[in-house]
């Protein structure tokens, strides 16, 4: 319980610093929150392939976080870090399937991904290809988590899928804020859903 409270407090300090400062608090607590989740997993033990994959995904998420928060624009590098994280998460989720896949789920998820891409398209410019690839990957990751849940009917699968959906919400709001125009509450929404997504994915590995 205390570890989870520490993680929550770290995330709140980052969100608060994004609006009120100081800068050092903003830079410290964004990656530290994910590092604390990694420490939680390490303490719990990385005994299965699923746990090891989630741990590796968190590590690449830290890389993405660092690039995205740098003063100079490192959006593509940050995108690449999270792209790799989603590849690893996907492998973890697909490894847990135990029955035939459900085909209505990818149709629904990829339909939503196409809508988001079309919404962003007029403002993407040279970033059209990287953003399209990223949307495809995170949608595929959510599909993998959804299949994990639907084929196993397990609490672990449900928690993983909830985390994947929160990740999609976070990245969608981030993209709208960046490409369609910034709005005040964006950072709070993006980071709250992001930390919740990572916490749920970690939860699926230690339940």
UniProtKB/TrEMBL annotation:
<keyword id="KW-1133">Transmembrane helix</keyword>
<feature type="transmembrane region" description="Helical">
    <location>
        <begin position="156"/>
        <end position="176"/>
    </location>
</feature>
<feature type="transmembrane region" description="Helical">
    <location>
        <begin position="131"/>
        <end position="150"/>
    </location>
</feature>
<feature type="transmembrane region" description="Helical">
    <location>
        <begin position="101"/>
        <end position="124"/>
    </location>
</feature>
<protein>
    <recommendedName>
        <fullName>Lysoplasmalogenase</fullName>
    </recommendedName>
</protein>
<feature type="transmembrane region" description="Helical">
    <location>
        <begin position="49"/>
        <end position="68"/>
    </location>
</feature>
<comment type="similarity">
    <text>Belongs to the TMEM86 family.</text>
</comment>
<feature type="transmembrane region" description="Helical">
    <location>
        <begin position="188"/>
        <end position="206"/>
    </location>
</feature>
<dbReference type="GO" id="GO:0016020">
    <property type="term" value="C:membrane"/>
</dbReference>
<dbReference type="GO" id="GO:0016787">
    <property type="term" value="F:hydrolase activity"/>
</dbReference>
<keyword id="KW-0472">Membrane</keyword>
<dbReference type="InterPro" id="IPR012506">
    <property type="entry name" value="TMEM86B-like"/>
</dbReference>
<dbReference type="Pfam" id="PF07947">
    <property type="entry name" value="YhhN"/>
</dbReference>
<keyword id="KW-0812">Transmembrane</keyword>
<feature type="transmembrane region" description="Helical">
    <location>
        <begin position="75"/>
        <end position="95"/>
    </location>
</feature>
């Amino acid at each position: 319980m205390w570890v989870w409270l520490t993680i929550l407090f770290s995330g709140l300090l980052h969100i608060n610093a994004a609006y009120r400062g100081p800068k050092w608090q903003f830079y410290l607590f964004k990656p530290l929150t994910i590092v604390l989740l990694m420490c939680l997993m390490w303490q719990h033990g990385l005994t299965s392939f699923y746990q090891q994959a989630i741990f590796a995904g968190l590590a690449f998420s830290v890389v993405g976080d660092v690039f995205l928060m740098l003063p100079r624009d490192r959006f593509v590098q940050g995108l690449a870090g999270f792209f790799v994280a989603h590849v690893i998460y996907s492998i973890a989720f697909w490894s847990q399937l135990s029955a035939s896949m459900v085909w209505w789920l990818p149709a629904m998820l990829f339909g939503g991904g196409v809508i988001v891409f079309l919404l962003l398209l007029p403002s993407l410019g040279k970033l059209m290809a990287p953003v399209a690839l990223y949307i495809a990957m995170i949608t595929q990751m959510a599909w993998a988590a959804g299949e994990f849940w639907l084929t196993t009917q397990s609490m672990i699968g449900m928690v993983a899928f909830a985390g994947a959906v929160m990740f999609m919400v976070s990245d969608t709001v981030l993209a709208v804020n960046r490409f369609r125009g910034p709005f005040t509450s964006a950072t709070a929404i993006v980071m709250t859903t992001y930390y919740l997504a990572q916490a749920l994915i970690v939860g699926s590995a230690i339940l």
